[in-house]
Design a protein that fits this description.
The structure holds two protein chains of two kinds. By secondary structure, chain A is mainly beta. Chain A has no helices and eleven strands. Classes of the chains: A mainly beta, B mainly beta.
């Protein structure tokens, strides 16, 4: 039972570089989410998707992009990395309606 | 004012103590209430999921919701060092949007 799998676990980027954070789930969930977690700030929603081909912005979408070509995968793209994007990024998924979220173990990103 | 308020702690207790963790909220539309446990360098894992007011018990854990006071609690009985983690409350009105508290760090000393 893999659940939600995120890669890589850690990454260091230079300012202006780009990268893609990978997320895959094997629970056949329609809903997928990207959050960032900063110390003392809780989890902030970046983007979410309610199904393949459908994505929408969350609270803090600036500097990020997403795509959802399959039910299983929901990658997060950083185009021009900035120090403000140093954070821990969590991918999550949920079933229909009011189901709770299931999280991956995160990607720890540092931008210097 | 944040939609969900949670004391960040840290909270330090001796092994065997009863722990009380709390959150307050401002949105009266919230109906679904959750508690997540997060160990260091891991993702949040769901502990408790309740709908509307009342109590729910699961082993050593009890979740309590008081919608009239906009207040939720998580009680941990007979706390163990393995309970040392950050506890996040979360809630939603319905649908997909979940709002999280900032988390309370708990240390249980052996």
């Amino acid at each position: 039972n893999a659940g939600v799998t995120q890669t890589p676990k850690f990454r260091i980027l230079k300012i202006g570089q780009s990268m893609t954070l990978q997320c895959a789930q094997d629970m056949n969930h329609n809903y997928m989410y990207w959050y960032r977690q900063d110390p003392g700030m809780g989890l902030k929603l970046i983007y979410y998707s309610v199904g393949a081909g459908i994505t929408d912005k969350g609270e803090v979408p600036n500097g990020y992009n997403v795509s959802r070509s399959t039910t299983e995968d929901f990658p997060l793209r950083l185009e021009l990395a900035a120090p403000s994007q140093t954070s821990v990024y969590f991918c999550a998924s949920s079933g229909q309606g009011d189901s709770p979220l299931h999280f991956g173990n995160g990607t720890r990103l540092t931008v210097t | 004012q944040k939609e969900v308020e949670q004391d960040p702690g840290p909270l330090s207790v001796p092994e065997g103590a009863i722990v009380s963790l709390n959150c307050t909220y401002s949105n009266s539309a919230f109906q679904y209430f959750m508690w997540y446990r997060q160990y260091s360098r891991k993702g949040p894992e769901l502990l408790m999921y309740t709908y509307s007011s009342g109590n729910k018990e699961d082993g050593r854990f009890t979740a309590q919701v008081d919608k009239s006071s906009k207040y939720i609690s998580l009680f941990i009985r007979d706390s163990q060092p393995s309970d040392s983690a950050t506890y996040l409350c979360a809630m939603k009105a319905g649908g997909f949007k979940t709002i999280f508290g900032a988390g309370t760090r708990l240390f249980v000393k052996a």
